[in-house]
Design a protein that fits this description.
Layout lengths: L3 E4 L11 E13 L2 E10 L2 E7 L5 E7 L5 E4 L1 E6 L12 H10 L2 E6 L11 H12 L5 E4 L1 E2 L5 H9 L5 E4 L13 H12 L4 E5 L3 H5 L9 H7 L2 H18 L2 E4 L8 H10 L3 E5 L1 H5 L21 H12 L5 E2 L31 H11 L4 H16 L15 E11 L18 E11 L2 E2 L15
Parallel strand pairs: 2-5, 7-8, 8-9, 10-11, 11-12, 12-13, 13-14, 14-15
Antiparallel strand pairs: 1-5, 2-3, 3-4, 6-16, 16-17, 17-18
Helix pairs in contact: 4-7
């Protein structure tokens, strides 16, 4: 094992010395001030002190981070479809949270679909929490859903601790989570603004997609034509207009169209309360390289061309795009229609929860970007989005959630070795840089035999 761990003190403390439950020491520790040699003292699951390496902090348990490793804050993924209960054969809390932990993600926020029932009222939230409470290996929080007819439930869900509300502007893919019209979205935005909640939007225009050529068969180009950039651009413009009008905090999910970056930039400069995310598949995969019939690559909105990808990276670097999250949206292999390779009938979703950090680090490294910037996009900013003030960075007073990451190690993706439930991935066989060797939550190692993750709620 590359990490050295000592149980018991290396020297006996004097009566005046402070002792901790855990001390972590390393030459490369990523704090809010950057990567530097540091010692971290942890007590009762919290970071109590961060000091220069050599401070000699005393603890019952010491973790010495190896010289080829960087101690990172645990990452936060605010876009995960766990699907339990109701579609647990697609994914469940046990498999999803193990995948998260193996990828250095110590906190996830679960989407209100594709579980049955969807999280659109308090009863459904209670059912979801009961399912998660027995099988969570990382911290788990929940988004609520905004659908036609549940406006009366939004405040109650907010008060029960959901982090905000998701809506669709076109068919969601499952009938039990219907979409909102733009007018209905505006009504719900006004309601959410009254108690300072957040509306997160799957922004694709249903009319444009409905009038586009429908995908048939295995040609990826045909599928791409069926989800044109203009569908995203139009819907994002509608989100911006309604957020400006209502004053709500709004968040655009899984941005794939770089055409929308300028209007997003202008809206932010104007003061519209807008944030934006994108996903590893839009930043690492290219439409030009997707084989016909390769439905593992199908997601909505779709993976686009190289020039589009380059502009998304530029949007990240300029701060127009705030976060990188997985949009982990798995299904059973038969629903991906692997045998026939028909993009018209295959489920649209990419399962990448375990691979997000190495995927983005591999690409960022090629571009001369620093690991600190990757963690900003995948830890710090998603924490801010969800209002998780104790997550996402290594600082005094924060939760003691960490990932031990070997950035120069490489590995080849093998779907049979991933924790998510169904072994299918567009990254199969891809060589990636960066290996997560250990995840720590509240000062304790994740034990893949014992679920000790906590359910979390919106902070007051």
């Amino acid at each position: 094992m590359s990490i050295n761990e000592a149980v018991g003190r290396t020297s006996s403390p004097t009566a005046t010395e402070t002792t901790y439950d855990l001390v972590l020491r390393g030459q490369q520790v990523l704090t809010a001030q950057g990567i530097a040699p540091r010692e971290i003292g942890v007590r009762d699951g919290k970071i109590v002190t961060v000091q220069d390496l050599g401070a000699g902090l005393a603890a019952e348990r010491v973790i010495e981070v190896a010289s080829d490793e960087v101690l990172l804050p645990g990452l936060v993924d605010t876009h995960v479809h766990v699907n339990e209960p109701g579609r647990t054969e697609w994914e469940g809390f046990e498999s999803a949270t193990k995948a998260a932990a193996a990828g250095g993600v110590t906190t996830i926020v679960d989407m209100p679909l594709n579980s049955i029932p969807p999280t659109v009222n308090l009863e459904a939230l209670d059912i979801k929490r009961a399912a998660a409470s027995k099988n969570a290996y990382v911290n788990v929080g929940f988004w609520g859903g905004a659908i036609p007819g549940n406006k009366k439930d939004l405040r109650e869900l907010h008060e029960a601790g959901v982090f905000g509300f998701k809506c669709f502007l076109l068919h969601s893919g499952v009938d039990e989570f219907p979409s909102l019209s733009v007018g209905e979205m505006e009504e719900d935005m006004a309601e959410l603004a009254s108690f300072d909640s957040l509306m997160i939007v799957h922004a694709e225009d249903s009319d444009i997609i409905g009038n586009s050529p429908q995908p048939v068969g295995g040609k990826y180009a045909g599928f791409l034509d069926s989800r044109p950039r203009d569908a995203e651009n139009t819907a994002i413009a509608q989100v911006i207009e309604r957020a400006r009008k209502t004053g709500v905090r709004a968040h655009v999910l899984h941005l794939s169209s770089s055409d929308a970056l300028q209007m997003i930039r202008e809206a932010k400069a104007e003061g519209v309360l807008l944030t934006v995310e994108t996903c590893p598949h839009y930043l690492t995969l290219l439409a030009e390289e997707i084989p016909d019939g390769a439905t593992a690559f199908k997601c909505c909105p779709p993976i686009r061309e190289n020039d589009n990808r380059e502009l998304l990276w530029k949007g990240l670097e300029e701060g127009v795009i705030d976060c990188i999250v997985s949009d982990h949206s798995p299904s059973t292999i038969d629903l991906k229609d692997v045998e026939n390779g028909d993009f018209g009938v295959a489920w649209g979703g990419v399962a990448s929860l375990q691979l997000g950090l190495p995927l983005i680090w591999s690409e960022a490294k090629k571009r001369g970007l620093k690991l600190e910037q990757v963690v900003q996009w995948m830890g710090v900013n998603p924490s801010k989005l969800a209002g998780l003030s104790a997550k996402g960075s290594i600082e005094e007073g924060k939760d003691a959630d960490f990932a031990v990451f070997a950035p120069e190690d490489t590995f080849e993706v093998d779907v049979q070795k991933l924790h998510h439930k169904n072994p299918i991935s567009p990254y199969q066989g891809k060589t990636l840089s960066g290996v997560v060797r250990r995840s720590i939550i509240a000062g304790a190692d994740v034990d893949f035999q014992k679920p000790t993750g906590q359910l979390i709620r919106r902070e007051s």
